Structure formats: structure tokens, C-alpha cells
């Protein structure tokens, strides 16, 4: 049941508390579940040994699996989910389109092209990693789409169309490079990464993804009044004293940077930025002061849960996390659309 627009503060605090507890539970399960099952008590001891200099006796294997692999993976998943959901909520308000999501600007396709240029063509190899190439490709894609959108008028509809055009262009470039230049092993590796993979993330990725998500949340929260005003259109926002052009540049640039950071680490992961903001809006209402932090929290929970499912759904095999988010996100979005149609 959705919270009314003027929900008592205690109800919102209760929702946030439940969400944080659920996120902590998901992270704990993500650390414990895998090919080697680890009890939650052992996980707590390993974390205490590292963070609080405790002296619990643990095997080096368990300590390494928990701290060096699974915990960093879970935290990157949470940060990526929060970033994608936050970007989706902002873009849906800014572009006034319920189908807007982080990849609408062609960022994912550009990151894919950048990644294959490094891994297959060898551009910058030895200086750039796959993630570095993906980030540069994402930035170039956003810049080109932004220039194209500004040239055709910069309206919300045209920004989306320019994003679609950019996505198709960079997707075609990626397919061309893989088809003409990659061997079977390279093509398999790139395909797995493009579908979304958390297998290669480690603590340096946590140190980047978590601050990016936090800074992005702060920037977006600083513009909640403008986002609420955009619900009535750009002209209405301008009439309320909002600097429309400045807000668009700041928020589009922020969402592009956050999405590029996520894609450069974990590849293309769809439906998080599309489904989660709608679910949060259904529960908490359209006010962005409440919607943005709740969407970020729900996105983190959704991504960590998807990572757990990707590791247990098929024995002895890890599915790309983008496949899991699509399998669960597509039916969820269809249900949201159906409920919206019934209540319209």
C-alpha cells in the first residue's frame, strides 16, 4: 500500500529503517552464499577482525573469500544499484518521460565501444584497463549525444531520440569490431561483460563507486525543488524561478557520470533505473525529497539480491547479473504499468 503524500514522519522513518535492515541482510547473505557456504557468524568475525582489530580465529581461506572477494562485490553491487535507480528517478522527472532510464543517453553503448576498443583493438592497452576504456567511451557518447541534442533544440523528446540514435550508432560500432577483429575467446569475454558482471570488482572499485553514488545523491537532493517543478514542464519551472538550462546541464551531467562509472565497472545492467523509481514512487509518492533517497536504497537492495540470485540460480555457474535484472525487472515493470492503467 502506498504512503500518502503527507505521510507521518514516523512512517517514513520506519520505511527507511526497514530498508536499511533489509540492505544489511542482503549484503550479509551475499557474503555468506556461494560455492563455499560461510555461516553469518563467521562473516561477522571476519569483518570484526579487519575493522576492529579483533582476534577471532578464522581460516585464511574464509578470511580471504569474505573480505577480498564477496564483501567488496556486495558493496559495489549496492553502490551500482543505488546509482542506477537514482539516475532513473532524476531522468524520468527531468525528461518528463516514464520510460527514461540511465541508458537513454547512449552511455551504455558508448562504454561498450570503449571497452572493446581496449580489449580487442588494443587502443591504450597497458595504460587503460577495460573499465578505463569503458569510462572514456561513455564520456564520448554522452558528449556526442549532448551536442546532437543541443543542435536539434534540446527538448526532452529530442534528447531521448538523440540518445536512441547514439545507442544504435555505438552498438553498431561494437558489433562491427567484435565481428571483424575478435577471436572466439575475446568475443566471449566481451559478451559476458556487456551483459553485466561483478566478477572482477575489488576494493578499489568500492572506493570509487560508493563515493560517486553518495556525491550523486547529494547533488540530486540539492535540486529537489527544481525536479518537483519540472513535473509541470520547463515553462512552469522557469516561471517558478528555476534556472532550467543550468539544472539540466548539472543533472544530466551528474547522471551521465554516475552511469559511466557503473558501466565501466560492471557492464550494462538494465531495468534497475527503470523499475525501481516507479516502485519507490508508488510507495512514497512523487515528492523528490523523499523519492530520491528511497529509490537509491531500493536500488541497492535490488542489485544485491540480483547478484545473489545470479550465483545460485544455476548450480556451479554464475549468470550475468544483467540477465537476472531483466528476468525480474521486465515482469515487474509490466505489473507496474498494469496497476497504473487500472488506477488512472
From TrEMBL:
Subcellular location per the Swiss-Prot or TrEMBL entry: Cell membrane
Organism: Pseudorhizobium pelagicum
Claim: Lyase is one of the keywords in the record: no
Keywords: Cell membrane, Membrane, Transmembrane, Transmembrane helix, Transport
Family, per entry: Belongs to the binding-protein-dependent transport system permease family. FecCD subfamily.
Species classification: Bacteria, Pseudomonadati, Pseudomonadota, Alphaproteobacteria, Hyphomicrobiales
Regions crossing the membrane: 74-95, 102-128, 134-152, 159-178, 206-228, 249-276, 288-306, 318-338
Protein name as catalogued: ABC transporter permease
Example of a GO cellular component annotation carried by this entry: plasma membrane
Pfam families named in the record: FecCD (PF01032)
GO MF, any single term: transmembrane transporter activity
Its membrane topology: Multi-pass membrane protein
UniProt cross-references to PANTHER family, sorted A to Z: ABC TRANSPORTER PERMEASE PROTEIN MJ0876-RELATED (PTHR30472:SF25), FERRIC ENTEROBACTIN TRANSPORT SYSTEM PERMEASE PROTEIN (PTHR30472)
Domain of life: Bacteria
Amino acid at each position: 500500500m502506498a504512503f500518502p503524500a503527507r505521510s507521518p514522519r514516523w512512517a517514513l522513518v520506519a520505511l527507511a529503517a526497514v530498508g536499511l535492515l533489509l540492505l544489511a541482510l542482503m549484503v550479509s547473505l551475499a557474503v555468506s552464499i556461494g560455492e563455499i557456504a560461510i555461516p553469518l557468524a563467521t562473516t561477522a568475525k571476519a569483518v570484526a577482525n579487519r575493522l576492529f582489530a579483533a582476534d577471532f580465529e578464522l581460516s585464511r581461506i574464509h578470511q580471504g573469500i569474505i573480505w577480498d572477494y564477496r564483501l567488496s562485490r556486495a558493496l559495489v553491487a549496492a553502490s551500482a544499484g543505488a546509482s542506477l535507480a537514482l539516475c532513473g528517478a532524476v531522468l524520468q522527472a527531468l525528461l518528463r518521460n516514464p520510460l527514461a532510464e540511465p541508458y537513454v543517453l547512449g552511455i551504455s553503448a558508448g562504454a561498450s565501444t570503449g571497452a572493446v576498443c581496449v580489449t580487442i583493438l588494443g587502443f591504450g592497452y597497458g595504460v587503460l584497463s577495460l573499465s578505463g576504456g569503458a569510462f572514456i567511451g561513455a564520456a564520448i557518447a554522452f558528449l556526442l549525444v549532448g551536442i546532437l541534442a543541443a543542435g536539434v533544440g534540446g527538448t526532452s523528446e529530442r534528447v531521448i531520440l538523440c540518445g536512441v540514435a547514439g545507442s544504435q550508432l555505438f552498438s553498431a560500432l561494437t558489433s562491427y569490431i567484435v565481428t571483424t577483429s575478435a577471436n572466439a575467446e575475446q568475443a566471449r569475454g566481451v559478451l559476458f561483460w556487456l551483459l553485466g558482471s561483478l566478477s572482477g570488482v575489488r576494493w578499489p572499485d568500492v572506493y570509487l563507486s560508493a563515493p560517486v553514488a553518495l556525491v550523486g545523491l547529494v547533488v540530486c537532493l540539492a535540486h529537489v525543488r527544481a525536479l518537483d517543478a519540472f513535473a509541470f514542464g520547463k515553462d512552469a519551472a522557469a516561471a517558478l524561478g528555476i534556472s532550467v538550462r543550468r539544472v539540466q546541464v548539472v543533472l544530466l551531467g551528474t547522471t551521465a557520470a554516475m552511469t559511466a562509472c557503473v558501466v565501466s565497472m560492471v557492464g550494462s545492467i538494465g531495468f534497475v533505473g527503470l523499475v525501481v523509481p516507479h516502485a519507490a514512487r508508488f510507495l512514497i509518492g512523487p515528492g523528490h525529497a523523499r523519492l530520491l533517497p528511497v529509490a537509491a536504497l531500493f536500488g541497492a537492495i535490488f542489485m544485491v539480491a540480483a547478484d545473489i540470485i545470479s550465483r545460485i540460480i544455476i548450480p556451479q555457474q554464475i549468470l550475468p547479473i544483467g540477465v537476472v535484472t531483466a528476468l525480474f525487472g521486465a515482469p515487474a515493470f509490466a505489473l507496474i504499468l498494469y496497476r497504473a492503467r487500472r488506477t488512472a
